[in-house]
Structures are given as structure tokens and as C-alpha cells.
Amino acid sequence: MRYRHPWLNLLFSPHPRWVYNTAVMLLALLFSLLASLATSLYQVHNEIKHDVNYLDQIVSVAIKYGLEKPTLSEASRVSGECSTDTIEQLEKLYVSHLLMSIPIVNLDKQNPYTYCSPFGVEQFEQRNFKNLLNTQLKGEMWRLAIVSLSTAPKHPPYLYGSNGQYGFLFPLRTEYLFLENDLDHQRSIRLSLPKENYTILEIGSMPESDRLYSNSVASNYLPLTFESFVSTSRVLSKFKQNLWPVTTSLFMISLTILWLWVSYWHAKKEIALQKAVREAQFFPYYQPIVDAQTGKMLGVEALLRWRPSDGRVIAPSKFIHYLEQSGDIISTTENLITTIYHDLSSLMNQNDEFYCSVNITPLHLQNDDFYYYLKRFQHDYSKLTLELTERQPIENLALASQRIALLKTLGLKISLDDAGTGYGGNSYLHYFDIDTIKIDKMFTRSIDEGRSAVLDGYIEMAKQLELNLVAEGVENKLEAKGLLLRGVFQHQGYYYAKPMSIEDLHRWALDYGYTQELVSEGSG
Ligand code: C2E
Ligand code: CA
Ligand code: CA
């Protein structure tokens, strides 16, 4: 399959092993970095989740404990004044109270209210109370509120539990052990009354702009909301901590998995291709090469296709590489040549000039086997052109040149495929007895792009060397006309016909083969 986007083609075409290995390494690295970032995010998420749950627990326990133990009755008996006796009793209660809540006793009934506390007289104004909830407890009405001390306005607020005459102050703190000091600017917690949008307490000094992520919990017990925040720098510092242990181990694990997967994928493909070779699952598609002046089909290029047992038709970019690596390309080409003489016999008989191009690689020129294989058959090799690609290097040019000469004794022709795009650098033209230059689609395309200097150079060179020219990849009228204007008449490309099965080729030859709209006619 060919993709519309060149980078997709690049991605899915076969590459040398090192490309896969590098890709696997990079993928594993990317994966481990991302996974370690995800781990860091998960960890800070847990951290701040833990923060809110912890504060919720502290506050809830303090209130529950205070309300269920209204042990102030003794102190309440000492009413009227804040005597040393009263203070002493309150102090005892203060010290014995599990959560060090401050017991207080109301001394009067007017605003500001005077209370006696273990530390002396304390005054509260009614407006300092934010009412949280009223609850019936052991037949008495208890209420809960947020309160701040007017004598210490900067002091963190208290939770206040009271049955009217006496109560407890539960101190909220700006520091708790669970939120370490050094994380003060990376994490923060907010305790608020959601209804009034009133912030009771904020722990941590993280600027609002640094907040990356927050987590919020509504208290089950009180109408309070606990929110925790974390900054990007906290995630990054976690990420740094994780870099060595987590990232490294993830990298090793993902590398192993990916490597196994790629090896499995290669092995599976290789096994499928070995089967394909054994069961001869390869067959040709044919793409017409036409005379653009007359519309007449001059010949075809045989392009290999693979049909696995599931019936799909697979393009060479997916398998040629494997066949070349295993050396099976030789026998595949040999079978292909046998097939084309069978497939095309009627077209060859109808038209003396009709020919078929078959692609070969430098491997075909490594020894004389290919020549001897062809020699065994009595085919009319004047109808065969071998397209030698420039895309692969030929190590021994002199030897390859001898083999080409030997092959040509059979009467076949040699075409230089992909000229100007590969390793040849014109040396193939110099060394080998070439009949035809195939202008690559890259240069055909240069006509649309309006920069055809290289194309013109090749055309000029072909003229000088008296070589035949075929233009490949002709996709539109503009290219076709541009080529005609430059004296290139043999065209191959989607503009005329796509590669097709032999059955379709016969139909195409009947329908269009000799009546194709002439490019030179009309305007445009
Ligand atoms: P190639 O020899 O350059 O063949 C031309 C390729 O261009 C074909 O791709 C053809 O379908 C495609 N093509 C034709 N007209 C157009 C067009 O107008 N626009 C564009 N964009 N493309 C066009 P295909 O069939 O996928 O073959 C790809 C390559 O596989 C061939 O390139 C050739 O290098 C190799 N190949 C095909 N069959 C064989 C074979 O039997 N043996 C060897 N060694 N290689 C083969
Ligand atoms: Ca070709
Ligand atoms: Ca080509």
C-alpha cells in the first residue's frame, strides 16, 4: 500500500536493521520518560489527596471528640468570674483533653461576650463567629462555629464547639507534620466554607499562578471543603527523583518488550515471505508504457505483487527488501519472466514491437546464473527489457558490465531505472551498455514545479548518447505536454494507466490501448 503522505511511506517501508534498532531505542526512551512523568503525576496526585484526607481527619476527630465529651460541667459550676480557681480547673481540662483543645466558660450574655479560658479572660464578638452547624447532643443544643481571636488577629482561626455557656476552642494550625516545611511553596491546602466561599485556613505559601493541579474533598462530617494544590515544580522534582530508578528500569523493560516485538514482527514477516516464495505467491501487475503522440501502447512494465493466502494484494515496498536480503529475488524474477511470456504472448504476437520491462537488482549481476537460467528458454528476448535500478550500489562495475554484455547476447535490452536518484552518478551510463534511460518520477514532477534543469540535462545527455527515453510517473496533462515539448514520447504513469492485473490489461488494451486521447491534441 502506498500512502499519500511521504512520511507515512517512509515510516512503513522496509529499512536497514539499524533504523529499526534506533527507532526501538528512541521509542523505548520516549515511553519510559512519559511513563515516569505519569508516575510522578500519580505520586503528587496521591500526595495532595493524602494532604486533604489528613486535614479532614484531624478536624473531624477534634470536633467529634470535643462534642462527645462535654466534660465542662464541673467548670460551669464556677460561673460569674474568671477566678484563679476557675482558671486552674480549666487548665486541668486543657491538659487532659486529648487534642489540647482550649476549654472556655461564658461569663456574661452581651456582645462582646466575655469568656474565661485557661489563659485568662477572652472576648469574642458575635460577628467573629461563622456558624457551621447546630446539633442536639445528650439533650443539649451544641453549635459549631469558626472563630478568630480578636486579641490575636493574625493567629490561625479556631473551630469553636459550644453549648451556650461553655465550649471548646479547637486550634487550627498553619503547620502540620504531614505537610513538610520544605514543600511549603510546592503544595498547599485550603480549608473553606463552600457556601459562603469563605477561606478559613490556608496552609502553604504557593502562589496561585504556580498551581498545576488541585484535589478537593467535601467533609462527610461538617459543611467544610478541603482543597489541596500542587505546583509544576513539585511534579518536576518528583520526576527528577524518579529519573534514575523508575525511568531506567522502565527503559530497560520497554526496550526488551519493543525489541522482542520488532524481532517477532520481522520473524513473522520473514516466515510469511518464505512461505510466499515456496508457494509462488508472487505475480505481476502490468503498467502500460504508451507513445504519447499516438496513444498507442508500446509495452508494459511488469511490477511484482504479493498475494498472501488471505487474498490481499501487497505492493513491493513491503517485501522486495526481504527478497533481496534472502536472495530469493533471483528465483522470483526468473518465475516472473516465465509468467510474463505466458501472460503477454497474445499482445506480443499482435504487435512485433511490443515489449515488457522487468526490474532487476545488482544481485542479478553477481554471477552468471541468471544468464544461464534465461538461456535455457527459447523466449524471444528482443521483447524483454531489464530495468536496472540506480538505487542500489554495484560493487564491481567492471564485472557487472561483463554480465550485462553477456545478458545482451540473448537479445534483450537494458534500461537504467531511477536514473539520477541513486548511487550511479552516471557511472552506470559510462560503464554499461545501456539502451534506455528511465526518467524518474522525481524529474517528471519537476515540470509541474517549474524547475526542470536536471530533467533537461538528462534529455540532452540521452540525445548525445543516442539512448531511448521513457518518462515514468506521468500523472497529469501538464507533465505529459511538458515531456512531449521536450521530445520525450514514451510515457508511463497514472495519467495513462495504473499497474493492473493481466485480465485488466487485456481489457484496457481493447478499450483504450489504441484510442487514448492524444496529449498533443487540443489545448491545456
Ligand atoms: P519502479 O521500478 O520505479 O516502478 C515504478 C513504480 O512507480 C511502481 O510502483 C508504480 O506503481 C509506480 N507508479 C507508476 N506510475 C506512477 C505515477 O504516475 N505516479 C506515482 N507516484 N507512481 C507511479 P510499485 O509497483 O509499487 O513498485 C515499486 C518498486 O518496487 C519499483 O519501482 C521497483 O523498484 C520495485 N519492483 C517492482 N517489481 C519488482 C521486481 O519484480 N523486481 C525488483 N527487483 N523490484 C521490483
Ligand atoms: Ca522500474
Ligand atoms: Ca523507477
Automatic annotation (TrEMBL):
GO terms for molecular function: cyclic-guanylate-specific phosphodiesterase activity. Residues 266-513 form the EAL domain. This is EAL domain-containing protein. The chain crosses the membrane at residues 243-265. The keyword Transmembrane helix applies. PANTHER family: CYCLIC DI-GMP PHOSPHODIESTERASE PDEF, SIGNALLING PROTEIN WITH EAL AND C2 DOMAINS. Keywords: Membrane, Transmembrane, Transmembrane helix. InterPro entries: Cyclic-di-GMP_PDE-like, EAL_dom, EAL_sf. Pfam families: EAL (PF00563). The lineage of its organism: Bacteria, Pseudomonadati, Pseudomonadota, Gammaproteobacteria, Vibrionales. The keyword Ribosomal protein does not apply. It comes from Vibrio coralliirubri.
